[in-house]
Amino acid sequence: MGKRFFKHPWIIIVTALVITAGFATQLGKLEIDNSLRIYLPVEHESYVRLEEMEAEFGSTDIIGIVLEAREGSILTADYVNLLRDITERIEDVLQVDEVTSLANIDYIYGRDGSLIAGSLVGDDFAGTPAELRDIREKIAGWDDMYHRVIISDDWKSTQMSVTLETGLGSKEKQAALDAVRLIVAETAVDPNIKVTYVGDPVVSESAGQFMRSDMARLIPLVVLVVIICLFLSFGSVEGTVLPLITVLLSSIWSLGIMGMLNVTFTIVSSVIPVALIAIGSAYGIHVMNHYYAALDKEPGPVGRERHREIILKGLTGVLPAVILAAVTTVAGFISLVGSPLVPLRSFSVFTALGIVFSLLLSISFIPALLMVKPEKSIGRRSGFLDGIKAKLKAKGTPAQTDTAVKTEAPSKPSILYRLYRILAGSPVRLVLFSMVIIAVSAFGIRRITVDTALVNYFPADSQVRQDIDFVDERFAGTNSIYLIVEGQEKGDMTRPEILKPLDELQTHLSETYGEIGKTVSFSTFVKRMNQVMHIPENPAVYETNWEDDFSGDKGLESFGFSSFDDSGSGLSSFDDEFSFGGDDDWSGTDDGYIDPNIAYATKLGEPMTFREGMALLEKAYSTAGGSAATVQGIVRELEKELNYNGAAYYEIPYDPAKYPAATTEELQDLVSQYLLLFSGSLDNFIDDSLVPRTGRVAIQLRTRSTTVIEGIINDAEAYAAAHFPEGYTVHATGNAQLEYVMTELIISSQMRSLLFSLVSVFLILAIYFRSPLAGLVGAVPLLFAILLNYMAMGIFNINLDMFTSLIASIAVGVGIDYTIHFMTNYREERQLSGNLQEVTRKTLEKSGRGIVTNALSVGLGFLVLCLSRFVVLRYIGILVAVVMFTSSVLAMTVIPGLLNIFDFKFMKRKKNRPEEA
User: Fold this and answer.
1) What is the largest CA-CA distance in the chain?
2) For this UniProt entry, which segments traverse the membrane (predicted)?
3) CATH number where 205 lies
C-alpha cells in the first residue's frame, strides 16, 4: 500500500502545495476581536442577560474620552465651547448612539410647576464669569450625578462618554473609534489639551495591535529556534528544512480553516502557530531520524530504487511511534474542547487539527520530497557538522579529547542515571521525593489567584494600561457592573418600599468597597426630583398665597400634584433643637398638613445670632462624624438643617409624616407624578418612563480585580435578599460581571480538562501496554508535573486565567511522549535482563538524550513567547519551559522508580510483533 501511495510523489507534493495555497488565501479572512463578550458562548446565561439589558437600556460599548488641561482649569469659556463642538460632531458619527459630556449632560431643576431636564450648559452660553460660576455651583449641587463623572476633583480634566449602537461587530467598532479620534484630533488642536481614550473598543484595538506585532516578531524567532535545534540534531540542510516545512504548512492549514469558518482570532489563538511550530516538528524529526538510520546502514552507493525502499522502510518503522505520539498530543489539547470559553475551545480544536496536519505531512510530504531528490544527492547528506568534527579530530583538539572521554564513559554512571538514583533510586527516596512534590505544590496552589481581567494581559508600562490608570485615578472608573432590579408588575419601581432599600444598597456598596467610584440608578433621579420640588421659596409668597390659594400658584398642587385624601397627617417630627416658632408661623390645609418649607423659607430669610450659628455648626460637625468629619460633610449637614436648595429633601419620599400623604401608596403616587412632570429621558435607568417595572443600577469601578467584583456582586445579592420587599429580583450583568463569570468557568473547565487529560493518558497507556497498571504508572509523573506548574504559578504570583489554564493541556500532550518513550525502551531492556538497575541504566542511555533534546526544543520554542508584548504570553513561555523540564525529569526518575519497586508483569511480557521493536 505504501508503494502504491508513493508511486507518484510529485502528485503528493503538488497536492500539498495547492492545498496550502488555498488555505493561505483564507488567512485574510481572519478577524481579530478581543472584546470581552467574544469569550463567552452566546447561549450562556450571562451573555443572554447582557444582550437583554442592552436591548432594554442601551449599549455598554462605550468609548471614554478625557480632555485634560495641562495648565489651568478645563472649565473655561473656550474649552466649554470646544467640548460642545466635539460633542455635536461625534453625535453625527454613524455608529454612535449617544454622547454625554459636560456640554450636554442633563441638569434637573423646577420651573413653572414642572421638572425640567435642561442642560448643565445652556444653549445661550456666552462664557461669562457668572455663567462659569453657575456651572460650578450646579456641579457641586448634584454631587451624586456629576462628581468624578464629567469633571475631576481638580477641575483640570473632563470626561466624555460615547455610547455605540448595539450589535456592532469589531470592524464597525473600530470604524467608530477611528472616526471619534479623527474628530477630536481635528478639533482639539490646543497644545495645552491632552487627550486620553479608554473603553472596551480601545482595549480590543490595543490587543489587536499587540497581536500583529507579536506574530510578526515571534513566529520568525520560533522558526529560528527550531532551525537551530534541527541543524544541531541532523547537521544537514534537508534534515533541517523538511521538518520545518511540515509545521509551517500545517500552521497555514489550521489558521486557513479558521479563516474559512469565520472563527474569531483572539489573543489565545495567537499561541496556535507558536505551539504548532514548537511541538509539531517532532514528527518530521522522527521520520528523518529513521530515514538517516536506514541510510547509514547501506554499505555502498544507493540508487534511486534502493533509495525509495530505504525511505519506505524507515517510514514503516517509525509510523506506529509517530501516530501514537500524535494521538497522545491531540488527546492533551482536545481536553479543552469541552470548555465553555469560546477561545479555549478554538485553541483546542485548531491546535489539535494542526498536530494532525503535521503528522500527515510528515509521513507523506517529507517522504515524497526525499523521493524526488536529485540523483546525485541520494545517499548522502550535507556533512557540515561531520566535517567540523573530522577536522577537530585530525588536529587533536579538545573535540578529540571529548571523543576519548565518551568512549570510556560507559563504565561510569551517566548524569541522568545518577539523578534517578538520588531522587527515586530506592522506595524510601521515591516516597520522600513524591512527598516533597506534593508538599511544595500544596503550598503554591493555596497562593494561586484566579483572575481573568483582560487588561492585566498588558504590561503596566503599556499605553493602554497607563491611560486606564490615569482615568481611574481622576474619575469614577473605567469598569462597570450593572444591577438589574425587576418587579412583578408595571409601576413596581415607583414604590418607596423598593426605592429606599435600593438607595441604601448603593450607599452600602459605596461605603464598603473603596474600588467603587460611583453608583447611579433611578433612585438617584427620584431624590433629585424630590429635592427640586422642595426648594424653599420666599416666605412672603407663602404668607400671602398659601391659605387662600393652596391649589393655586404656589401650593404643592401648583407643581401638578393631585390632592391627597383627608387622612394625610401633618409633619409630626421636627428636630427640637431647630425650632421654627409657634403654630402661628405655620400655614396649612384643612387636612392638617403643614408645609415645612414655610418654616425653612422663614428661617433662611432671618438673621442668625453668633450663638445660633455656632450651635448649628456644632450639630453639623457632630452629625457629619465628629473628628472624622470632612469639610464637605459638614457643609452638607448644614445645608440639610436649613434645607438650602432643598437639601433636606434629597431623599426617597418614604415617611408619610414628612409629606402630604397618609400612606406609602400615596407616596408612590407622588413618585409617579414626578415622572409625569419630568421632561427628560430616563431610558438608561428604567424600562418605562411612567410605570417602570425594571430598573438598572450602574456601578462604576476603579478596579479590574475579579476577586473584588465577586465580592461586590455577592454582597449586592445578599443585601437585596435581606432588605428588598418580596417579589423583587436582582441580578448582575455588564463587562465586569462577564469577567467574574469567566473566572468561575476557568476553574470548572480546568478541572474537567485535567480529568479528561489524565483519563486519556491512562487509557492510551493501558491499551498500548495492555495493562491498566501501565496507565497508572504513566499518569503519576504527568500529575506531578501539573502540580508543580500550579506551585510555580502560586509562588511567582501568576494568575490562573485563560492562558495559564492551557499549560496543563500542553503538559499532558507533550509530557506523555516522554513517558511513552521511556516506558517503551524500558520494556525492551526488561525483556532482555532481570537486573533492574542495569535495565534502568541502559534505558536512560538509550532514551535519555532524545527526551532531553525534545524537552529542550519545545521549551526553547515556547520561551520565545517571553519576548511577547503581552505579559500573559511571557508567563506562558516560562511555564511551558518549566513544565517541559519537570515532566521530562519526572519521566526519567519517578517512572523507573515505580517500575523497579513493583517490577510489573506487563514490562516482562513478550511483544507479539517483532516490528514493534
Assistant:
1) 128
2) 215-234, 241-261, 267-289, 310-337, 349-372, 422-445, 751-769, 776-796, 802-820, 851-872, 878-902
3) 1.20.1640.10
